[in-house]
Every structure is written in C-alpha cells, then in structure tokens.
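FIELD: query
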Amino acid sequence: MVITEGLLIYLSREEVAALAGDLAAMPGMRHWVTDVCSPGLLRILQKNIGDPLREAGAPLKFGPEEGIGFFEPLGWRAAEVMSTIRTGAKIKRSPLFLRLIALLPEPKGKLGSRPWSGACLLERDK
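FIELD: result
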C-alpha cells in the first residue's frame, strides 16, 4: 500500500498520471490511499491560499474534472471514497453550515465546479 495524502494537489495531471502508472506497474502494489479535490474546490483554494504557495514554488494544480474516474484508465479503481465534508459532519468536527451542506447528495462522476474533496482507497485493477 502507498499513501499520498496531501501530495497530488501539487502535481500536474501528467505527473499524477505518471505516478499512477508507475504504482500500477509494481507487482506488489495493490492499494493506494490518496485525497482528491474537485476543480471547483481547487479554484477556491488557489484564490484563497494560492499566492503564498505559488511564491514558495508549490502551486496547487490537480483537481480532475472526472473525479476519481481519472484513475480508472491508469489501472486503479475506487474501492472506497469518503467525502471530507460528510466525514467531518459525521464525527461532529464541522461547523453547522458545513454539517448542513453534508446533507446534500454526493456528486457522482464528473465533479465540475462544485467544491468537493475526499479520501480515496484505490485498488489496482487485476
């Protein structure tokens, strides 16, 4: 298993695709835990915290339009996906307005402009 929590958002689509391919090519690699955000959340983060990160040479880049589906053609399928907002609400670690947002249906497929992030357990296709 490999864990890349907090990493992918700093990589380009091409770099994430290369990493996914490299991990899928390793015979003993079966699981990958990572986090992913939507393009909508990526834009919000770039606007609110992007300048200092860009100045430090670490701009925020990765928020795939296709969501977790980005990883499927690269040899990975989603075994489990846990929404950050929904999980925070479930364990009562979110402010009231986020707990209310957590009641909305989860997006399926393309994430688009809706702010969303989640932790993902990916399994290598056999």
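FIELD: remark
The mean pLDDT is 93.
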